## 1
Amino acid sequence: MERRNFLRSLALLAACPLCVKTAFAAEGVHWSYEGEEGPEHWGSLGEENGACSAGSQQSPIDITGAIKADIPDLATDWKSGGTILNNGHTIQVKAAPGGTLKRGDKTYDLVQYHFHAPSEHLVEGKSFPMEVHFVHKHAETGALGVLGVFLAPGAANATFASLAAKFPQKAGEEAALDSIDAKGLLPSSLKYWAYEGSLTTPPCSEIVDWMVAMEPIEVDPADIKKFTALYSMNARPALSANRRYVLSSS
Ligand SMILES: [Zn+2]
């Protein structure tokens, strides 16, 4: 990794001597989903984002050719409530403290969940209108365990409808949620695909145990529109699996 960064630094020096200072000084640089600051440029928007272009275990991916395996069941114990925020890239709910996800003998704490449109993961090349990411952190190792759930148009989902009614309209706006229960966004089955990957936004760190639920949830198309009115495209395109295995729990 260090060698990669070093090589990248050399490449930067050669490509653009005057850019070097800015590139190295940049911290939490601005990024977006299109144009000059879009996904194909994330890796060069700042040294800390190097993994976005140099990494070999990036996310999302197209889930295909999964291998059936004896992987641990998932169990969530999330608390209701939290704070809903428009962070300029997505709508994110800061979770109420104390919520957990158990995967076998590993326990992760729920930190936040947020939405993408369209879905970031693909299944056999096919995308869904939206995907929610429940971001958990392992208290001791710091590893992230992110559970992705696809959202498909259909019957209304009460939890998603309540959230959609409260989406803060402007970046930076935040509102308290009284009794939103995130469990309402889970499908009836928690069978899932698992693989090792990365954050799907800069700095694209390769620290994520990905779990993607096989069963989508249905939500009211009108509620999807409330999200896409704010963020019509906030999905990183799928990257190469690079010989990684995707395991399937069924
Ligand atoms: Zn995400």
## 2
Amino acid sequence: MTVPLGDELARLGWNAALKAALEQLPPGPGRPVRIVEQHRSEYRVNDGEHEFSARTHPALHQALTKADDGIAVGDWALYQDEGDWLTQLLPRRSLLERTREDGRRQRLVANVDTALLVMGLDGDFSPERLMRYRLMAVAGDVTPVLLLTKLDRAQDAEAQRREIASLAPDTAVVTLDARSPQVPELLAPWLQPGQTLVLLGSSGVGKSTLMNSLLGTDTQRTGATQDHQDDLGRHTTTARFLRRLPGGACLIDTPGLRELKLSEEQAKVEDDFADVRQLAARCRFSDCQHQREPGCAVVRELSAQRIAAWRDSLVPRKPDRKPGTFGRGKP
Ligand SMILES: Nc1nc2c(ncn2[C@@H]2O[C@H](COP(=O)(O)OP(=O)(O)O)[C@@H](O)[C@H]2O)c(=O)[nH]1
Ligand SMILES: [Mg+2]
Ligand SMILES: [Zn+2]
């Protein structure tokens, strides 16, 4: 199948890699759409020009269930107009997931480039929690950016920023007031056209406020999940949803994750380098990068090899993830 790399799709994050993946598939019905909202029994999808509802085709549902997989907001799928079916999931470049309290994995968002990990500089401030979010992003092949909001309410924003920076070397840290008109400018490096970002963080930290600041509107309600009416006029609440930003990037808002548990793989990254983290607390400078700083306990105590292994663990790795190859069953 040949699909043009049209402007409309590109604005949704469609790219050459997806186009190539699609051309690898055997010919069949369906055209690419992006999942922008997940509802109880259906999805809202966007084809670059229109947004409409779609359901998972039973054959795809079966294939996904068998693979312990499912569709997430941000996924690309093939949509068949006849029947409003999603017939196939396209390969993902990234996936964020967490382990729920009942031990089951929950897919949060797919095909995201950057995770904006949001934490308030007020009473919400918890470096440990933010580092768990960061590990989730790294394990999911997503670049973490740490956003410290409520700058206007911070006691000592600079000390807090330094503390976070010392725990997360090689990770961007931005302090800001989520309501500020400068938000688009501050986040511009990650908002290139075609990029997809997700807002993650506790409830009340300013995620929806940031979404509004980036959309340049007040249309989305803050302090609650988004309410709107579906096609049948029913009042629904949407947990995660993707919006296109004026500059050409896509942003996904999410509700707070009450308890962020790490999957085994993510926890392993953390446990493996407990020695580095403990030593880092004894470095002379709170924002020590453990390179050539005087009084660096990490460099003093650990071998160069050990430090290199730790640095490697911080950069996103390519996990062994099979692309979604599901049959393009006809209804
Ligand atoms: N003072 C201050 N208030 C903020 C800031 N960001 C968000 N808020 C307020 O915090 C409340 C919760 O924000 P919201 O965006 O709904 O948080 P969410 O749950 O993360 O989506 C709202 O009343 C916002 O106006 C900020 O940077 N400074
Ligand atoms: Mg919100
Ligand atoms: Zn150090």
